[in-house]
Design goal:
mainly alpha, 56% helix, 135 residues
């Protein structure tokens, strides 16, 4: 897991974005470059993701990758929360806070967090744009 965490942290061939999608529950399409652990070079995105499947860190079915269980999901979340992840770390932290506020039925905190995200992410001239509001 440490070698894979290093690959994620250093964003080797955009692997970090794939892991963020997987942690969010979004499957990632990929063409695996072999199934033998001995052949793994860990130099390209496909080689890294293939190695993760071989070692059981990801599940592969019908051309899509997923995180196979809750325990590994927690490990990936821990990796994404490292200080070196900057913006990704903040998104993960905010997401957890919003989930906790939602489960606690704290509608004021959820509304405040959504407003803050909207204010931060939507350009001023598009603030009341229908597409921006629906996002």
């Amino acid at each position: 897991m440490n070698e894979i965490a290093d690959c994620i942290e250093h964003n080797v061939d955009e692997v970090r974005e794939d892991i963020v999608k997987l942690v969010a529950g979004i499957p990632v399409k990929v063409k695996l470059s072999g199934y033998s652990a001995a052949e793994q070079q860990m130099g390209t995105r496909d080689e890294i993701l293939s190695a993760m499947v071989v070692y059981g860190f990801l599940a592969f079915h019908n051309g899509e990758l997923r995180i196979p269980n809750f325990e590994l999901m927690e490990k990936y979340q821990d990796v994404l929360e490292r200080d070196s992840f900057g913006e990704v770390r903040e998104i993960v932290k905010s997401s957890k806070e919003m989930l906790e506020a939602t489960l606690a039925c704290d509608e004021e905190k959820v509304a405040s967090m959504l407003e803050g995200i909207h204010d931060r992410e939507i350009p001023f001239l598009q603030y009341h744009d229908e597409n921006s509001l629906s996002s």
